[in-house]
Specification:
This is DgyrCDS11689. The protein folds into two domains: 138 residues, Cyclin A, domain 1 (Orthogonal Bundle), CATH 1.10.472.10; 93 residues, Orthogonal Bundle (Cyclin A, domain 1). The termini are far apart. It is mostly helical. Helix 9 packs antiparallel against helix 10.
Length: 290
């Protein structure tokens, strides 16, 4: 079943409806606006990307981790589990699912600590530390698996994109076209697009935009011959363009800290037998609204 998208859990269970997605997100949107919510998602997608680069995993592993992250918060509020803990958890699980191998526990936590202190220090109060440990990642992984009902296979647009480019191009310009479309696909993981549309549609949308950028007029006939709903393709393209428009006037280094501070902070779910100073404080993935 993993080789057939139409019979996969990705297709049958994890292509969501936009209205359902917004309804599940309603509690978070009472605290921040939709644009700020998207900025939060972009920030943590960037964090997963930085973590993946530090751990030297394949781009597909990063993409899978980002989808896992978005799936969790498609069904849960941002206050349910600290997104900063969910980032390494999603990457840890994705590396196993995509057969990259089990990530080194110590290197994973160390990479998170370095990212928080250096690359993404602008988002946090300084001095600050990544206070979670690998046991928190392991526990958070169970919550992630439970939420996804162990539906772990994720289909990405990269493979169909390569097939489409090969079919469309018969000359040497296919490499440039593929590169532009590939980058556009990478950008879609900063949006809700992977939760809403099949990978082949995302690939076609990225390719269509790449053809426009590269002024490849011959592609018009190729797209016209496809038995595909072009309205859906243009719908995806509009969402990608909306992302680029947001980026034009958005300086993450100046804005994200205030947005993150406006979100509810995780609090410890402490057993009644524990005293106020027992255990590790502020690290439990069990959270409730403060």
């Amino acid at each position: 079943m993993a080789g057939n998208f139409w019979r996969s859990s990705h297709c049958q269970q994890w292509l969501l409806d936009k209205q359902d997605l917004m309804r599940e997100r309603n509690n978070d949107l009472k605290l921040i606006c939709e644009e700020d919510y998207q900025k939060v998602m972009i920030f943590f997608a960037n964090f997963i990307q930085g973590l993946g680069e530090a751990m030297k995993v394949r781009q597909q592993v990063v993409a899978t981790a980002t989808v896992f992250f978005r799936r969790f918060y498609a069904k849960n509020s941002l206050k349910s589990i600290d997104p900063l803990l969910m980032c390494p958890t999603a990457l840890y699980l994705a590396a196993k699912v995509d057969e990259f191998g089990v990530l080194s526990n110590s290197r994973l936590i160390q990479a998170c600590q370095v990212l928080v202190k250096n690359k993404f220090c602008y988002a946090f109060n300084q001095p600050t530390e990544f206070s979670y440990r690998i046991n928190h990642v392991w526990e958070c992984e169970f919550y992630l698996l439970e939420l996804m009902d162990c539906c772990l296979i994720v289909f990405h647009p990269y493979r169909p994109l390569q097939q489409y480019v090969t079919d469309l191009c018969s000359s040497t310009d296919d490499a440039q076209l593929l590169q532009v479309a590939w980058r556009i696909i990478n950008d879609t993981y900063r949006t809700d697009i992977p939760l809403l549309y099949p990978p082949y549609m995302i690939a076609l949308s990225a390719l269509h935009m790449a053809c426009v950028i590269n002024q490849k007029e011959a592609a018009k006939n190729w797209f016209a011959e496809l038995a595909i709903d072009m309205e859906k393709i243009m719908e995806i393209s509009k969402q990608i363009i909306s992302l680029y428009e947001l980026w034009k006037n958005y300086d993450e280094t100046k804005e994200i800290k205030a947005i993150l501070q406006s979100l509810p902070k995780p609090v410890v779910s402490r057993p009644p037998s524990q005293g106020p100073n027992d255990g590790i404080q502020n690290n439990d993935p069990h959270v409730s609204q403060a």
